[in-house]
Amino acid sequence: MHVHGTRSALTAACAALVLATACTAGTTDSAGAKSAGKPTVRVALGVDASYAPFYLAVERGMFEKAGVNVELVKTEGGPAAAEAVSAGTAQISANADSTALPLMATNPGLRSLGVFQSSDRYLKVVLRDGIDSPEQIRTMASIGGIGLYATHQYLRHNVIDPKSVKILQSSPPEIPGMLERGSIDAYILFEPWAAKGAAAGGHVTGRIGDFGVTYVQWLLTNQKWLKDNEEVAAKVFEVVAAADKLVGDDPAAAAEAADQQVKLPSADTAKVLPEITFAARGITDDDVAESKRIVGFLLEQKLIKKSPDLGTSLLRGWYEQHAT
């Protein structure tokens, strides 16, 4: 298997953007008159429909009403969001389990506070036109974390040795163009990038649940910040939980908020929101078991040298104790 070990130039640029965004967003002590007396929390997250609760909460002033000034630090998604927490340019991030776990292996200070959404439908398999079956695939593109894990599970489900397929690591915005140019045969990605691939000479053939993959998205933070800010973190999670419910009750409003916050076309967002289960909860036994499976995969692929301490990194009971 060929997995590019370095990030693309775009990824590096996006990481730089995270730093620039955070550094110009105002410090905790001087975040503007509207946040006077309120703690400022920078939340790093990607730009897609799965983050609709955050967009809606900001649009409706829900964080402000809860007494917290939240600044969204938009990244390309994937590891970049959690890396902002590790770098101290954000205090909280939203990340899929299989994206967060390898970072937890190298940064033992990262903590998962709980789950705010999950899905086995949102990530889709996109094949290039002319590729009609998995057996024809010779080259795929993948993002790190959930993307790479799902790619391997997809190939194994179809009785294909992942080592027989060239897997190029890239970033979401680049991948549909790679498909259009014919430099890859397939990829697995969330929206809007699955639809962009279908519009650029490809076709969607399935979802990750078809081959037994489900992801959960965690709210992540760093233990160093958390130990002095548990009440603040709890307020943020409480607002996200409330916004989760609003997304389910009024998807049109959530889609409009995504358009206002990150210029995602509201019609496209409204179409895919039902593919995601927006519900906040604490870490469960099933989450720990799935994390162990993902860690096993990461070790097998030599993507990490040792397992993170799941008993420390996954905060069992934190959500129930602090945010409900």
Would you kindly provide a written description of the structure presented here, covering whatever features stand out?
The chain is 44% helix and 18% strand. The protein has two domains: 9-119 and 215-322, D-Maltodextrin-Binding Protein, domain 2 (3-Layer(aba) Sandwich); 124-211, D-Maltodextrin-Binding Protein, domain 2. The chain has helices at residues 9-24, 52-59, 62-65, 79-87, 97-106, 146-157, 175-181, 193-199, 223-226, 230-249, 251-262, 266-272, 285-300, 310-313, 318-322, and strands at 40-45, 69-74, 92-96, 110-119, 124-128, 139-142, 166-169, 186-189, 202-207, 215-222. It is built from 15 helices and ten strands. The chain has 324 residues and is of the alpha/beta class. The strands form two sheets. A five-stranded mixed β-sheet has the order 2-1-3-10-4, with helices on both faces. Strands 7-6-8-5-9 form a five-stranded mixed β-sheet, with helices on both faces.
Describe the largest sheet. 5 strands, mixed
Query: Helical amount among residues, as a percent range?
Result: 40-55%
Average pLDDT value? Answer: 89
Number-wise, the strands total 10
Q: In the CATH hierarchy, what is the architecture of the largest domain at level 2?
A: 3-Layer(aba) Sandwich
Strand content: 15-25%
Q: Tell me the CATH topology of the largest domain.
A: D-Maltodextrin-Binding Protein, domain 2
Secondary-structure class: alpha/beta
